[in-house]
């Protein structure tokens, strides 16, 4: 009997069919319905990775922007304001034209021209910018009621600045006025002074101050009001601090002092300055808006400032205002200091970013590889039944994009909400990169696996798959790149890398990652051989667990490189990052210790009260208080005719001070080193005679030891007493002084006056700064080591970079754990089936647990040991080129020299041990779960694995 194409018998009718062509089920919808859990897992992974990738550049932007604002705010307005000034009008002009040039209308016109020359991103703060006319050379005011600290008359500057009423309030009297047109010959004008000027110079409302005239009678300046600044720290007042408060000047010749103050005239009273010898000048002060600029505007800001100082902007101002206009500002130096700090920190953050990014990318690739492995049979069948490779790849790309693109957009949106007020472009680019990687990873993996049509593939374990030539070339290429990066970093360091820019910076930042990559590639090739060597001796042991686990570990999948790469990269990055953070904290602690010399320091320029050490010792938290006397300007010389060497002479009690030095690690010494032996011990100048005949042993700094050697030499103290010392020991540092050449001697060898303590070095836990300051009283300086350490974390660049670094290392560790879980999940079906088969042969549950643990342990142990060794090697290789000073102390004055990277044991061992714990825990959990499901279910034929 014949049949039809649809399988029904000839002559019979099948079921009724709808007319028209049959429509196949959509591929994407079918696949998503078939594996919703896998699609959801991929969406979560892409969303999380995209959110982290997009949040990273925005977080960097935020702390860099905060660092720039802090830098601008910390700089005084006198430094950040761009000041333009022009001399008095051309002498060829008539007197009336010259007077008109100093009136407010003309100055306002010049002010508008100055503002028009300011180029973005530099924006003027119009509320704090100012203009006016002033005398550049203050003149004597001989009125008897003015303050004269040493009999010298004060000097006053006449200033006619705009908007005085808007920036001040009248404390008494009223603001000055210019009712009649003021000229160079006006005999009397009104003025105001600030409260500080009035208090210091003894000025009252109604006072008349006479200023010398130029070829005319003295100018009478009547004080009509005393004003208080509304914003005393604003640029309006602080761009020229003299208008807010007077300044005390000391003459270098005889030490006499006199005051300089400012008299604030009405804004339209500028022409009267032409009748004084004070050399009047016009000025325009542009205060920058510090709230608007961001860190990525710094280069543009520097260019705009340079254009105003000596570029096209200044040329336009000279053309429209006055050809002799000049400009000055320190804003360029302020921006340069921020750039230097950022360039010192950015390479360190880039190392963490590249490490965490590499691990995240590997995890995404592993997830795609897991999906490709799960669908290997399906895709091979499609290819065998005639499916074209481009068609299969297109469908895979479509079904992945349907999940990945919305997930990437969701992650981007979460990042934008979590980290607001930062650049959008970098975040979009990062999220887009993650989404594209997630979309193309599965199709590319399938393209390599199914480019040839085959239904049954061969074994793909390490024992049967040999590395291809392409793989060898790729591994050699990575080796060359890693070597170049390490060499570049060791030779130039992160400072040079941060200043050079370009791809070299990225190569240097990738150096720890590339070291981990090389280690992963080498270990993947080498580690099966020792396992196979151990398989033979293990086979002679009783039981099947040990030999079976070693045999299976030695024949693991050839795709082990990706999980091992993820683990090694994460461990290397964690060790490197942990060592960086530990090095930063250590550098700050050491710098703070050198700055204080102990846990706290109490010091005065004079001798401390006799009862003070007792009061301090009774303060809560103080364990010991070591008194020292420090003469900072002692002169050491050999012979009366030679030049003296300035050094700090430190008088100490050898026992307590030596013990303190040993405990702190700051040049410890035994007490006998400073004990004089032989006749004349302790006499020195102790009698006050100043003979200096006794030779006193001393501990010296290296430079003094190099100059004077071990022969005796003379030291003259600040009280003119003398002593003869001999260097008995050399120490690089000592607690009492910092960054100075020093001589440490026994206090008994000093005169009674010189031996009186000027400082106390305190040790103890949880010292209370407020209690110490109350006990110390006034006139002394109290510094706590903890407070000094906190002061080193001054810029948001430091704290932000540390938080970013910590988050990047934590994210890398999380992705490493995820990579380990993916690797175990990939092998879970095969292991479950193996356990089920072995249990039918009599394997107990305890033996099954041991089998899974021993099988997964070699790779985990390899990753743990390899990660620790690779992290140690990366730190040792890259440490000479890494400078942690910028992130540790942010360019603030700090003793101790350059902060270098050192190996941190906890950062090496803790992540490695965590890998072992996770691997063992997952193996035990898998064995427990398999035991609950039972062997029959695992051995059913046809189950998809």
List keywords for this structure.
6-stranded mixed beta barrel, alpha+beta, flat, 51% helix, 29 helices
Structure description:
This protein is of the alpha+beta class. Helix content is 51%, strand content 14%. The strands form two sheets. Strands 1, 2, 3, 4, 5, 6, 7, 8, 9, 10, 11 and 12 form a twelve-stranded mixed β-sheet that branches. A six-stranded mixed β-barrel has the order 14-15-19-16-18-17. The N terminus and C terminus are likely disordered.
In short:
The protein contains 29 helices and 21 strands. The chain has 945 residues and is α+β, with helices and mostly antiparallel strands. A hairpin with a 6-residue loop joins β9 and β10 (257-265).
Question: How is the topology of this model organized?
Answer:
Elements: H1 27-34, H2 36-74, H3 77-80, E1 82-87, H4 95-101, H5 104-116, E2 130-135, E3 139-140, E4 155-161, E5 168-173, E6 188-194, H6 195-201, E7 208-211, E8 219-229, H7 235-238, E9 247-250, E10 257-265, E11 280-286, H8 298-310, H9 312-320, E12 326-328, H10 331-374, H11 376-384, H12 389-418, H13 425-449, H14 469-500, H15 503-509, H16 511-526, H17 528-539, H18 545-554, H19 561-596, E13 600-603, H20 612-617, E14 624-637, E15 645-652, H21 654-664, E16 695-700, H22 702-708, E17 713-716, E18 722-730, E19 742-746, E20 759-763, H23 769-776, E21 781-784, H24 785-792, H25 796-840, H26 845-878, H27 885-889, H28 905-933, H29 935-938
Parallel strand pairs: 4-10, 6-8, 15-19, 16-18
Antiparallel strand pairs: 1-11, 1-12, 2-4, 2-11, 3-4, 5-8, 6-10, 7-8, 9-10, 13-20, 13-21, 14-15, 14-17, 14-20, 16-19, 17-18
Helix pairs in contact: 1-12, 2-10, 2-12, 2-13, 2-25, 8-9, 8-10, 10-13, 10-14, 10-15, 10-19, 10-25, 12-13, 14-15, 14-16, 16-19, 16-26, 17-18, 18-26, 19-24, 19-25, 19-26, 19-28, 25-26, 25-28, 26-28
């Amino acid at each position: 009997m014949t049949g039809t194409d649809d399988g029904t018998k000839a002559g019979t009718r099948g079921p009724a069919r709808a007319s028209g062509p049959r429509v196949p089920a959509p591929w994407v919808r079918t696949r998503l319905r078939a594996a919703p859990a896998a699609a959801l897992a991929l969406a979560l992974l892409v969303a999380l990775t995209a959110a982290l990738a997009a949040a990273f550049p925005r977080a960097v932007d935020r702390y860099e922007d905060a660092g720039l604002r802090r830098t601008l705010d910390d700089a005084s307005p006198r430094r950040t304001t761009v000041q333009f000034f022009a001399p008095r009008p051309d002498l060829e002009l008539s007197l009336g034209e010259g007077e008109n040039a100093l009136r407010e209308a003309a100055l306002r016109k010049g002010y508008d021209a100055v503002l028009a020359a300011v180029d973005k991103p530099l924006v003027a703060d119009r509320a704090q910018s100012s203009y006016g006319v002033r005398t550049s050379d203050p003149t004597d005011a001989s009125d008897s009621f003015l303050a004269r600290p040493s009999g010298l008359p004060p000097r006053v500057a006449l200033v006619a600045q705009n908007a005085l009423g808007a920036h001040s309030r009248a404390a008494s009297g009223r603001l000055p006025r210019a009712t009649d047109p003021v000229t160079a010959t006006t005999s009397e004008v009104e003025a105001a002074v600030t409260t500080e000027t009035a208090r210091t110079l003894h000025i009252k409302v109604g006072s008349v101050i006479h200023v010398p005239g130029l070829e005319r009678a003295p100018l009478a300046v009547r004080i009509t009001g005393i004003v208080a600044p509304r914003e005393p720290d604003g640029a309006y007042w602080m761009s020229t601090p003299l208008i807010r408060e007077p300044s005390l000047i000391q003459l270098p010749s005889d030490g006499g002092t006199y005051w300089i103050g400012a008299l604030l005239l009405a804004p339209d009273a500028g022409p009267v300055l032409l009748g004084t010898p004070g050399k009047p000048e016009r000025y325009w002060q542009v205060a920058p808006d510090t709230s608007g600029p961001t860190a990525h505007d710094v280069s543009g800001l520097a260019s705009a400032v340079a254009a105003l100082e000596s570029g096209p902007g200044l040329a336009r101002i000279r053309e429209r205002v006055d050809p002799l206009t000049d400009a000055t500002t320190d804003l360029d130096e302020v921006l340069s200091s921020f750039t230097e700090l950022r360039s010192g920190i950015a390479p360190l953050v880039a190392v963490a970013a590249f490490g965490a990014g590499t691990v995240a990318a590997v995890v995404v690739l592993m997830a795609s590889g897991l999906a490709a492995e799960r669908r290997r049979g399906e895709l091979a069948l499609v290819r065998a039944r005639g499916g074209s490779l481009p068609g299969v790849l297109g469908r895979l790309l479509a079904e992945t994009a349907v999940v990945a693109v919305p997930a990437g957009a969701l992650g981007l949106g979460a990042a934008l909400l979590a980290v607001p007020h930062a650049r959008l472009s970098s975040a979009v680019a990062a999220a887009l990169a993650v989404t594209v990687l997630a979309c193309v990873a599965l199709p590319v993996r399938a393209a390599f696996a199914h480019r040839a049509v085959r239904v049954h593939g061969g074994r793909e374990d390490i024992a049967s798959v040999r590395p291809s030539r392409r793989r060898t070339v790729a591994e050699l290429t990575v080796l060359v790149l890693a070597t170049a990066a390490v060499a570049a970093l060791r030779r130039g360091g992160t400072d040079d890398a941060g200043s050079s820019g370009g791809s070299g910076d990225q190569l240097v930042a990738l150096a720890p990652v590339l070291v981990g990559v090389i280690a992963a590639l080498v270990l993947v090739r080498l580690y099966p051989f020792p396992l196979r060597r151990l398989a033979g001796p293990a086979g002679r042991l009783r039981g099947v667990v040990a030999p079976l686990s070693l045999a299976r570990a030695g024949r693991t999948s050839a795709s082990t490189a990706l999980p091992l790469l993820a683990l090694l990269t994460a461990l290397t990055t964690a060790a490197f990052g942990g060592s960086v953070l530990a090095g930063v904290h250590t550098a700050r602690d050491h710098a703070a210790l050198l700055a204080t010399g102990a846990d706290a320091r109490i010091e005065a320029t004079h001798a401390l009260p006799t009862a003070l050490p007792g009061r301090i010792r009774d303060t809560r938290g103080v364990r010991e208080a070591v008194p020292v006397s420090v003469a900072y300007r002692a002169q050491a010389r050999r012979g009366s005719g030679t030049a003296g060497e300035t050094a700090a002479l430190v008088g100490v009690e050898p026992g307590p001070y030596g013990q303190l030095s040993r405990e702190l690690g700051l040049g410890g010494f035994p007490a006998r080193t400073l004990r004089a032996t032989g006749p004349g011990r302790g006499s020195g100048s102790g009698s006050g005679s100043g003979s200096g005949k006794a030779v006193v042993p001393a501990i010296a700094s290296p430079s003094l030891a190099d100059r004077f050697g071990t022969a005796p030499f003379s030291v003259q103290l600040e009280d003119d007493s003398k002593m003869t010392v001999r260097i008995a020991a050399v120490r690089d540092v000592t607690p009492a002084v910092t960054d100075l050449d020093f001589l440490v001697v026994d206090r008994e060898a000093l005169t009674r006056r010189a031996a009186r303590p000027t400082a106390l070095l305190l040790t103890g836990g949880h010292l209370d700064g407020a209690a110490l300051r109350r006990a110390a009283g006034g006139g002394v300086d109290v510094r706590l080591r903890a407070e000094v350490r906190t002061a080193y974390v001054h810029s948001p660049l430091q704290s932000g970079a540390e938080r970013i670094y910590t988050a990047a290392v934590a994210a890398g560790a999380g992705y490493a754990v995820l990579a380990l879980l993916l690797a175990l999940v990939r092998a879970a079906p095969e292991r479950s089936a193996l356990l089920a088969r072995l249990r039918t042969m009599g394997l107990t549950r305890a033996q099954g647990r041991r089998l899974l643990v021993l099988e997964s342990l070699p790779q985990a142990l390899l990753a743990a040991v390899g990660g620790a060794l690779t992290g140690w090697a990366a730190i040792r290789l890259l440490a000479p080129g890494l400078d942690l000073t910028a992130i540790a102390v942010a360019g603030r004055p700090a003793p101790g020299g350059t902060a270098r990277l050192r190996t941190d044991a906890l950062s090496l061992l803790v992540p490695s041990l965590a890998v072992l714990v996770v691997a063992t825990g997952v193996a035990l959990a898998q064995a427990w779960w398999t035991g609950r499901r039972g062997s029959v279910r695992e051995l059913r034929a046809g189950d998809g694995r």
